[in-house]
């Protein structure tokens, strides 16, 4: 149809035909190159131009104070038979409740109940949500601002040496931190923290580590606490006492369990300098890769993470400008 129209047009007037074709060519070229400021489908542009015009959204963040802190002391010595040592650091008097052999399904059903039904602000609330689907429970009182080492161990009469093959229906240990005083629950947005801990046994020898941590809010939401990856200091070398064979074994076990190594790597010594200008203070977290490597001046120039080259979908600042100014005044 178009060919018939062009032939008819040429027979009518060759000059008019040339003018129409030339006009169509100019309009098409202008659309492709963006002369008119209109949006053009991505397929008509090269990759570099598409990346340049991609808009990175700045995520609106709300700062909340987490009253709970939990870490594993000497993870290399932990096992199902010998137990585990946990170090707590809480801002208020708290209760540490440990559930050995907690059901995976019942735990995540309990988290959904915190969102839809009732708030898990006490150990009893979690027990009700779990329907007692755990093998053993122990509880400790934690004093505020005291880094206490708590030794947890299964009783010998349970005769439990492992939790079966992967995939498992039970987590080795789930640790719940809650505020001991009811009045303190009105002060903090975060009312409890659930930590899922892997402990090696005879069947699954992956080194001891915290797999997941969930922060439970008074409003009913719960959030998965993720590690931020800071830019490594060039002058420091990460300390790693494990041999290459042990690292290879851990990697294969992680892949078997469906976990990525990046999610469970131990933290390294970090630098506070921007990886681009080497002058500004690192302040921006890039999502979804969670690399924290850019300062306020450099973040606006990047649509890809300078560390892993992944496209940046969102970003947020660790500190506001007012907080940075306060820190500068303190150092003066």
How would you explain this protein's 3D organization?
With 332 residues, this protein is an alpha+beta fold. It has a domain at 68-224. The protein is 27% helix and 23% strand. The protein contains 8 helices and 14 strands. Helix 1 (2-12) crosses helix 2 (14-33). The radius of gyration is 28 Å and the shape is elongated. Residues 233-246 have a biased composition (Low complexity). InterPro entries: CGRF1, Znf_RING, Znf_RING/FYVE/PHD. One of its GO terms (biological process) is regulation of cell cycle. One of its GO terms (cellular component) is nucleoplasm.
Query: What order do the strands of the largest sheet run in, or round the barrel if closed?
Result: 5-4-7-8-9-10
**Relative strand content:** 15-25%
Low-confidence stretches: 42-53, 234-242, 261-270
The average pLDDT score comes to 80
SSE string: HHHEEEEHHEEEEEEEHHEEEH
Radius of gyration: 28 Å
Protein name: Cell growth regulator with RING finger domain protein 1
Keywords: Cell cycle, Endoplasmic reticulum, Growth arrest, Membrane, Metal-binding, Nucleus, Transmembrane, Transmembrane helix, Zinc, Zinc-finger
Organism: Rhinolophus ferrumequinum (Greater horseshoe bat)
Biased composition (Low complexity): 233-246
């Amino acid at each position: 149809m178009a060919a018939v129209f062009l032939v008819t047009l040429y027979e009518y007037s060759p000059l008019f035909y040339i003018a129409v074709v030339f006009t169509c060519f100019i309009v098409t070229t202008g659309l492709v190159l963006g002369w008119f400021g209109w949006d053009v489908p991505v397929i008509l542009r090269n990759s570099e131009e598409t990346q340049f015009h991609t808009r990175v959204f700045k995520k609106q963040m709300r700062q909340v104070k987490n009253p709970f802190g939990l870490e594993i002391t000497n993870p290399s010595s932990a096992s199902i038979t010998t137990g585990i040592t946990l170090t707590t650091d809480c801002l208020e008097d708290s209760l540490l409740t440990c559930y050995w052999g907690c059901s995976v399904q019942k735990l995540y059903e309990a988290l959904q109940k915190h969102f839809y039904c009732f708030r898990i602000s006490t150990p009893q609330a979690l027990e009700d949500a779990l329907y007692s689907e755990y093998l053993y429970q122990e509880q400790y009182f934690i004093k505020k601002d005291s880094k206490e080492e708590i030794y947890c161990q299964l009783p010998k009469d349970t005769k439990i040496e492992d939790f079966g093959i992967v995939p498992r229906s039970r987590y080795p240990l789930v640790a719940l931190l809650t505020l001991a005083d009811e009045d303190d629950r009105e002060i903090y947005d975060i009312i409890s923290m659930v930590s899922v801990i892997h402990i090696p046994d005879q069947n699954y020898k992956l080194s001891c580590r915290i797999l997941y941590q969930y922060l439970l809010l008074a409003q009913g939401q719960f959030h998965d606490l993720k590690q931020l990856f800071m830019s490594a200091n060039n002058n420091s070398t990460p300390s790693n006492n494990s041999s290459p064979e042990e690292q290879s074994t851990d990697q294969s076990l992680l892949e078997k369990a469906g976990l990525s190594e990046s999610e469970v790597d131990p933290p390294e010594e970090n630098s506070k300098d921007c990886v681009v200008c080497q002058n500004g203070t690192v302040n921006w977290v890039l999502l979804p890769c969670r690399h924290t490597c850019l300062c306020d001046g450099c973040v606006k120039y990047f649509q890809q993470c300078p560390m892993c080259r992944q496209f940046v979908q969102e970003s947020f600042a660790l500190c506001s400008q007012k907080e940075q100014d306060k820190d500068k005044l303190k150092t003066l």
